[in-house]
Amino acid sequence: MRYRLLGKSGLRVSELALGAMTFGTETGFGVDKQESRAVYDAFRGAGGNFIDTANVYAAGTSETFLGEFMADERDRIVLATKYTGGMRQRDINATGNSRKNMMDSVHASLKRLNTDYIDLYWVHARDYLTPIDEVMRGLDDLVSQGKVLYVGVSDTPAWVVSQANTIAELRGWSRFVGLQIRYSLVDRTVERELLPMARALDLAVTPWGIVGSGILTGKYNKDPDAAGRAQMRGQLSERGLAIAAEVVAIASELDVTPSQVAIHWVRQGEGNIIPLVGARTVQQLEENLNCLDVELDDGQLERLDGVSRIEPGFPHEMLRPQSRATAKRIDNHRKVSTPEW
């Protein structure tokens, strides 16, 4: 395992992050404490130090488990958790981005995690009701109090993130250093705005859903009945099946698993990308970690890009032709971080 700087900060994190959404069974998805501990230990044994959870994962159990697992090595862990989701029913203020929910949530998370501080505190999702300056001032207060060291944002439009960091920079508050988004070969829409923004603002990107809700494992290609049911539920398309088929073909050529190809494709992208890998078993985790040994040649990357490419949309398709024509006449010393549609 190698390490990377987390966005525009001096924090060193492992090149893969462990997603702890599967820690706990309270919400019907996940595994018990024994298996969760085995996954945690395997990740640490591989050199991983970056672990991501949220207050709502397994109704708080994920944080509780992690508090126990890292008790003897807290200072060695870069711990990330989130707030926004509600933990108390019938309480209108127990959800969203407000300062009240932020402060209630961080204190509850600190208690469950059995720690004095959180390394990276994420806004889990934008609620559109709370003024963005309220969010950024509240997060800066947490940093000033030493309860949080760095802040990040998840599942939020690019214009909101840009506005938030601009306000924070102008007022001398703590800025977002990370962006958490859904990204995979079957869902590349973040390439239009969110990823170029992250490169421009030097935000670390921690993608989730990197195997496309299991589509990229090839399981639906092998089971037409399951594929049909998933298509009826709107969870699968012919495009998704075609992308998965190409991933499976390349995995066979390399004698690796489709999941390893899918994860490697995400992590090799331009920018500061640190994929979130989750696992229900140690075997699944080890399979995911072995993506670090995968290498895709230019031809294979072109095949994956060809089958999964998306249309740029407006205004990109209007601006690109004239921008390219002008760029050919200019020796530009600055690296262009916009996608080459």
Strand numbers in spatial order across the main sheet: 9-8-7-6-5-4-3-10
Quick one: how many beta strands? 10
Can you tell me the residue ranges where pLDDT is under 50 for at least 5 consecutive residues?
A: none
Backbone shape:
globular
What's the architecture of the domain at 3-180 in CATH terms? Alpha-Beta Barrel
Number of helices: 13
Sheet bearing the most strands, described? 8 strands, parallel
* CA radius of gyration: 20 Å
The percentage helix is 40-55%
What is the CA-CA span between the terminal residues?
32 Å
Structural class: alpha/beta
Describe this structure in words.
The protein has a domain at 3-180: TIM Barrel (Alpha-Beta Barrel). Helix 4 links the parallel strand 6 (118-123) and strand 7 (148-154). The chain is built from 13 helices and 10 strands. The mean pLDDT is 95. The longest helix has 17 residues, at 238-254. The chain is globular and about 50 Å long. The strands form 2 sheets. The chain has an 8-stranded parallel β-sheet. With 341 residues, it is an alpha/beta fold.
Fold blueprint:
Elements lengths: L2 E3 L6 E3 L2 E3 L13 H13 L4 E3 L8 H9 L8 E6 L15 H15 L4 E6 L8 H13 L3 E7 L3 H14 L4 E5 L13 H8 L2 E2 L13 H4 L1 H9 L5 H17 L3 H10 L8 E2 L4 H8 L8 H11 L7 H12 L14
Parallel strand pairs: 3-4, 3-10, 4-5, 5-6, 6-7, 7-8, 8-9
Antiparallel strand pairs: 1-2
Helix pairs in contact: 1-11, 2-3, 4-5, 9-10, 9-12
Task: Provide a compact summary of the structure.
It is built from 13 helices and ten strands. The chain has helices at 33-45, 61-69, 99-113, 132-144, 158-171, 194-201, 219-222, 224-232, 238-254, 258-267, 282-289, 298-308, 316-327; strands spanning 3-5, 12-14, 17-19, 50-52, 78-83, 118-123, 148-154, 176-180, 204-205, 276-277. Helix 5 links the parallel strand 7 and strand 8.
